What does this fold into?
Amino acid sequence: MDQSRSASATDANRHISAVPAKNIVDTAIAAGNFTSFVACLKAAGMTDAFTGKGQFTVLAPTDEAFGKLATGAVDALLKDTAKLKSVLNYHVFSGAMKANDMKPGEVMTLQGTTASFSATGAEIHINGARVIQRDIIASNGVIHAIDTVILPKDWQALAAAA
It folds into this structure.
């Protein structure tokens, strides 16, 4: 009888600890592979937006994804905070969407333009970037790690020139 009581208490604790205590920014920091993304959020003055209330889906490029950008591209963005904010907002949309809920089609980003989801087998892509880690749950949304920094369609030439 005592064992069933302790098992029930353990189960209850497991459910309590399953509730995410960290917001999107703290969750990204704790993950350890989004340091460039978090540094950009800080440089753009956007951390408050993702530490507060609200539900967001963040398609966070990994540090490796930032490494794929043309030489000088990140430095150029860091010097132009308006453009940096726009790029970061292109990686976010309202509402917490888990990977299983992502369907092929367009989604409106916080930047104000659409991004396109597609699926190939079990893989999910957004504007060609592959979702490499799904459903990193935060108290105010969900993060999906992507392997490429995505840009609005009309910015592709800018990325190459930066």
About this structure: The two ends are 68 Å apart (CA to CA).
